[in-house]
Every structure is written in C-alpha cells, then in structure tokens.
C-alpha cells in the first residue's frame, strides 16, 4: 500500500527539487500537481516518522505551506464528522453570545482554558452558561446573524456529499446553532448541547446529557457501525481538546487551526490553508473540486 505527502501552498521550484531529492529514498515517483503551483502530492512506499514530518514542515513554514501525511488505505472517506465552533464557523458561538451580553472577556477566558484542555469541558460549559441566566432568547438570533463560515467549509461539505459521503456536524456548542449551520452547509445530521429556555429567557442551565469529547467519539463509532464502515473510512476535523478522541480514532483526523494540545497529538493540522485541504488530502484535484466551490 502506498502513502502520500500532500503539500498545500506555493513551494518555490528550487525548494521542490531539493525536497524531491530528499524524498527519493522514500518515494516511488515525482510530484503530482492537484492544483497547478499550489497543491501537489508525493507518493511514498514507506511511512515517515513524526520527526521527519516535523522537519519538512519546519523547512516550509516560511512559505506558509501545510504538509500532510495521508495513508493510501481508504483514502477517499465515506464519513465526515466535523466540529462546529472555530472549525466550520470562524468563531466560538458561546463567546459570541457572551459578547452581545457584555460578558465577553469573562466567558472567553473559560472557553480558551477548556479548549486547551486545562478545564473539564462539562464544568466549563455549565459555568459559562450559568452566567447567561436571564438573557433574552433573541440574543441567540443576533449571534447567529453575525456568524461566518470558515473558508472552504461549504465547498468541503458540498463536494463530499456529491461523492456519496455522509457529513455530520458534532459540537459541544448548542443545537440552536448546529441545526442552522447544518442546514446552511448541507450536513445530513447534527448533534450539540441544549440550552434550557423558559418563556423566551435563558435559565442558565444546559440540558442533559452533556455532549463532550466522549460523546463525540461515541457518535463517530455509532455512525461507522450503522453505515457498515471501518474507522479507516472516516475523517474528523476539529480544533480543541474536546475533539481529540474523535481526531485520534478516525482514519484521518485533522486539526484545524488547532490549540497546542491538539497540534502536538494529531499527525495532521491545517495551519495556513483552508478546509478544502481536507479534499486535497483525499486525492481530489482542483478540477474535481471547482464545481463545488462556494466560499
């Protein structure tokens, strides 16, 4: 079985030639362009270790090139589970809601600590939501209206669905947002936490059960089983500690602008490029993707 190194970003021709010489002992062929001058892949006979990958990435960091190692086993995935906050959408929806309520700094500090893995997710979620007690439900609509999709999100989902893959949004955020984001992006299913709302006012409580990192992993395993797939046929993407179990379990788990804990533990992270990199990792070319490009 052959494997692949995928480069997303402009690599100067001279550097590319130097890389090809370095890869010769590992590879079986030259570079293949997936998008001329911007995305290429190199086929490998063996599997490089993390030290080698980090060396290559460091050498290309000045050019803002992402480097991914992808197994050739079940390269085109049949299932995608994606985190929502700071992954499919650019912001953290709870923090955005807090900003509108004038509680931004107080709540975002808890969010950042939780995403770094420094706080228990459930405790951090409940602590943040408790501070929203008494807010009008209308603020949820205001927060949603300000939401922006990450670059490549709509293209990613559109392309994968067109290829017959099931796309699922799974978030520690709230179903008020996941339901709307899923519909706009084209996800087939969505899962999130529920906010308790009484007479149009937030009670400050999160409905049970809490969707945490273990629940995300459980959803991954459940969808794999229900679809009759293997984990090697699944891809996951996310940014925070709450995503780590599903990122590490999937055949291809990718950090997106990841927090340090995630970047240290997952093999592949999108640092400079956008979410269309998840398509290039699967071997799709720019021409394949072009009909589905939306953002």
Give a structural overview:
With 295 residues, this protein is an alpha/beta fold. The chain has 2 domains: 1-72, Alpha-Beta Plaits; 76-295, HAD superfamily/HAD-like (Rossmann fold, 3-Layer(aba) Sandwich), CATH 3.40.50.1000. It is 39% helix and 23% strand. The chain contains 13 helices and 11 strands. It has helices spanning 13-23, 50-60, 93-100, 104-115, 121-130, 138-145, 153-162, 175-185, 213-226, 244-249, 260-265, 277-280, 286-289, and strands spanning 3-8, 27-35, 39-44, 66-70, 79-82, 166-174, 189-198, 201-207, 234-238, 252-256, 268-270. Strands 8-7-6-5-9-10-11 form a 7-stranded mixed sheet, sandwiched between helices. Strands 2-3-1-4 form a 4-stranded antiparallel sheet, covered by helices on one side. α4 (104-115) packs antiparallel against α5 (121-130). The radius of gyration is 20 Å and the shape is elongated. The model has no long low-confidence stretch (mean pLDDT 93).
Write a compact overview of the structure shown:
The chain is 39% helix and 23% strand. The protein contains 13 helices and eleven strands.
CATH architecture of the largest domain: 3-Layer(aba) Sandwich
Structural class: alpha/beta
The tally of strands reads: 11
- Describe the largest sheet: 7 strands, mixed
CATH homologous superfamily identity of the largest domain: HAD superfamily/HAD-like
- The coarse silhouette is elongated
Number of domains: 2
* Strand order in the largest sheet: 8-7-6-5-9-10-11
- Low-pLDDT runs of 5+ residues are none
CATH class of the largest domain: Alpha Beta
Residue share in helix: 25-40%
Q: What separation lies between the terminal Cα atoms?
A: 34 Å
